[in-house]
Amino acid sequence: MPIIECVPNFSEGQDLSVIKTITDAIESVSEIRLLNVDPGKATNRTVVTFVGEPEDVIEAAFRGIQKAAQVIDMSRHKGEHPRMGATDVCPLIPISGISMEETAHFAQKLARRVGDELQIPVYLYEAAAKIKGRTNLSEIRAGEYEGFFEKIKHPDWRPDFGPLEMDAKTGATVIGARDFLIAYNVNLNTTSVRRANSIAFDVRERGRVLREGDPITGKIKKDENGNPIHIPGSLKSVKAIGWFIEEYGVAQISMNLTNIRETPVHIAFDEVCKKADKRGIRVTGSELVGLLPLDCLLDAGRYFLAKQQRSLGVSNAELIKIAVKSMGLDELGPFEPEKRVIEYLLNDPKSKRLIQMNLQDFADETASESPAPGGGSIAAYLGSLGVSLATMVANLSSHKRGWDERWEEFSIWAEKGQILKQHLLNMVDEDTNAFNGIMAAFGLSNSTEEEKLVRKNAIQTATKVAIVTPFKVMQLANDSFEIIKAMAEEGNPNSVSDAGVAALCARSAVLGAFLNVKINCGSYNDKEFVADILIKGQQIVDNAISQENEILKVVYHKIE
Question: What helix, strand, coil percent values describe the chain, rounded to 5?
């Protein structure tokens, strides 16, 4: 699911009722999740953070900008922070399942709507910018609200969308797409701010000024234009400074990681460790400020496991645990992923998804008088168990004594297994959702001819979903045979029986899911589609039976 974050900055930080009116407008789009509202009295500015799928996010952003234009009067605004409009800036940030280019497209779509419908001058910035020289927010905002009445008239500063003059009440706004920014602090075993700063200068992209003679007290060298010459630091897209935290009694390197694809958290941590060590200082841990995408922790977990030459094909929970312990994210206090990871915050706490049940509850739910979960969900679960067993064999093989040089070979198989496992687990709920979709369609009113037609079409649409869903289970379970066979032939010989059980599960998942495909095909009117999917389904069944037989031959040969 593509997820983007939106962090609009509104020019009101003192009147909580006005702020609540704006956030209520944002939350009127029920599909988005409001994560944070941070008002600042001195800056007279509020930063709001919410996430969701792209279309929902830009709808919520539009409503927030619209409401801000109604309740904020820029002609009366005073504050310490630079600003140019009721909604000063509104960045969109890709979180998962979406590229920066796609995110920039949504920013442009939002900007056009704000300009056209609200008649607010809009400038595009960062990745969404269409005009050279408008990527930098500070350059666009230069002159601020007071200077923009004249600035907007200059040919070089015509807005990208909206009117060519600025309304005194609403001002202008900037909309764009940018990378996720992470505030990250690394803890040191020193109280010296000067030494912490030295490390910060070593790593930050800007580096330190070049001096004559003594690197600390020497005269600053300048270029032909009179500007200080800098020695670049070792990390791109990183801003850093040293400071002392009285609360903890230690110095820290405080960093802003402005492009986590260029410098991820784990690389920043390791680089600080190296630079600190050269100066006789030890890193004792670190802390993340605010929220972060799940991939940041997963990538960190993989990075540290790879350094240990251990299999990367472990669960997300294990990857996060490795990341937290490796970077000491829990040194200054508990690190709770469910409260810090954006994707986890999106999970509905009231959700009763099947895969979140324990084994007892899942079995009880299946055995109840309710028709769902049924055979389709069980087939998907069987498939997930099969590939989980194969993944277990891969991980055991990766860590087998005497096979150290093969750790990466088995790690790759384990990673493939983890991906298939998660897809199949998701299908457990998808199959039940598909069944519920059919029941909902049958429950539609059919009093009038128009209602009968709507109901008929809804039933057909839901039926197709109920065909395609178990068919996908068949494909996923069939894909797992490659891993299972490799583990039976090449994996830890002590676990070959586990590979055999995996093959039995995968074959049962394929055949079981095909039963659901066939029973739902009987109610679907598109006979050409039905004929095609039944042929493809039978081919998958034939392959599954063949693969199972081949794997079991290997298993029996090794255990007899």
Answer: 55, 15, 30
Mean of per-residue pLDDT scores for the chain: 92
Radius of gyration of the chain (CA): 29
Of residues 316, 426, 411, 410, the one with CA closest to residue 376: 426
Both tokens of 116, joined, read 């056209």
Does 165 lie in the same domain as 65? yes
What element of type H or E holds 244? Answer: strand 238-245
Confidence of residue 220 (pLDDT cuts 50, 70, 90): confident
Q: Give the CATH number of the domain where residue 198 resides.
A: 3.30.70.670
Say how many Å lie between the first and final Cα of the chain, rounded: 47
Which residues make Cβ contacts (< 8 Å) with residue 218, sequence separation at least 6?
A: 211, 212
DSSP H or E run through 96? strand 87-96
Is the pLDDT higher at 377 or at 288?
Answer: 377
pLDDT in tens, 55-82: 999 999 999 999 999 999 999 988 777 8
Number of domains in the chain: 3
Q: Are residues 199 and 142 in the same domain?
A: no
Strand partners, 36: 49
**Does the active-site annotation cover 431?**
yes
Residues 6+ apart with CB under 8 A from 284: 187, 188, 189, 250, 328, 331
Quick one: 305 and 389 in the same domain? Answer: no
Given the residues 270, 299, 431, 498, select the one marked as catalytic: 431
Domain holding 463, by residue range, is 354-559
What crossing angle do the helices spanning 407-442 and 375-398 adopt, rounded to 10°?
Answer: 170
Question: Is the same domain home to 475 and 374?
Answer: yes
- Is 81 annotated as catalytic? yes
Tally of residues, the chain = 560
Active-site residue (options: 38, 81, 295, 399): 81
Instruction: Kindly give, in sequence order, each residue whose CB lies less than 8 Å from that of residue 105, ignoring residues fewer than 6 positions away.
Output: none
> Across the strands, what pairs with 34?
50
Please enumerate in sequence order all residues whose Cβ is within 8 A of that of 531, keeping only pairs 6 or more positions apart, or say none. Answer: none
201 and 223 inside one domain = yes
**What is the CB neighbour count within 10 angstroms for residue 541?**
18
Model pTM score:
0.76
DSSP state of 330: T
Residue pointed to by tokens 């909309």: 175
Determine contact, residues 263/237, Cβ cutoff 8 Å. yes
Could you report the per-residue pLDDT of 408-437, keeping only the tens digit for each?
999 999 999 999 999 999 999 999 999 999
Q: Which two tokens stand for residue 191?
A: 């109280």
Please indicate, yes or no, whether residues 133 and 186 belong to a single structural domain of this protein: no
Helix (H) or strand (E) holding 254: strand 250-257
Q: Look at residue 47 in the predicted model and tell me its pLDDT.
A: 87
Nearest to 500 by CA among 551, 449, 429, 432: 551
Torsion of CA 321, 323, 328, 332, to 10 degrees: -70
Same domain, yes or no, for 339 and 361? Answer: no
